Amino acid sequence: MKIALSVVVALFLIGCSQETSKQKEVQEETQKVEEVKEVKKVEQAKKIEKPVSVKKQEPVLVKETKKPEKTVDGAALYKTSCISCHGAKAEREALSKSQVIQGWESAKIEKALHGYKNKTYGASMKTIMEGKTKNLSDAEIKALAGYISKL
């Protein structure tokens, strides 16, 4: 019985030692796999650290173009807005109450038109002229004054 027991124990120990050596082999393989993974991570990091050469591009010059300014026809404005009161050559007192504007300089006319528009100029004709000038742009006032000054 001792012999049988000894044989069983011996077989058990041999089995255990074989199992232990298998475990060691698995551990060694696992360690090798981990080492390979670590090497790959390092290589990957080295690839990222490499400076990337960037091709320098020449700057592109964009030519800024201005939109052509809309030309304003002072004569047409005068004919549609002013001629009925001031006359064809700006020779009349508007509604027999204003000054004759013929012969005025362009700057004086501009100042008057801006004043009417801003409600800071004019006497008896102020209300009528406010209505006529309120929608005029600066360019239209300039064109209108230029035209009237040449009449």
Describe this structure in words.
It is a single chain. With 151 residues, the protein is mainly α. It has two domains: 43 residues; 76 residues, Cytochrome Bc1 Complex, Chain D, domain 2, CATH 1.10.760.10. The chain is 62% helix and 0% strand. It has six helices and no strands. Helix 2 packs across helix 6. It starts with a helix and ends with a helix. The model has no long low-confidence stretch (mean pLDDT 79).
Topology of helices and strands:
Layout: H1 2-49, H2 74-81, H3 83-86, H4 106-118, H5 126-133, H6 138-149
Helix pairs in contact: 2-6, 4-5, 4-6
Distance, first to last CA: 144 Å
- Strand proportion, as a percent range, falls in under 5%
| The CATH top-level class label of the largest domain | Mainly Alpha
DSSP helical segment count: 6
The coarse overall form would be rod-shaped
CATH superfamily of the largest domain: Cytochrome c-like domain
What is the fold-level CATH name, i.e. the topology of the largest domain?
Cytochrome Bc1 Complex, Chain D, domain 2
What is the H-and-E element order? HHHHHH
Largest sheet: none
Structural class estimated from helices and strands: mainly alpha
The CATH architecture of the largest domain can be given as Orthogonal Bundle
Q: Bin the helical content.
A: 55-70%
Radius of gyration (Å): 50 Å
Residue runs with pLDDT of under 50 for 5 or more positions: none
Total number of strands = 0
Average pLDDT rating: 79
Q: Supply the number of structural domains.
A: 2
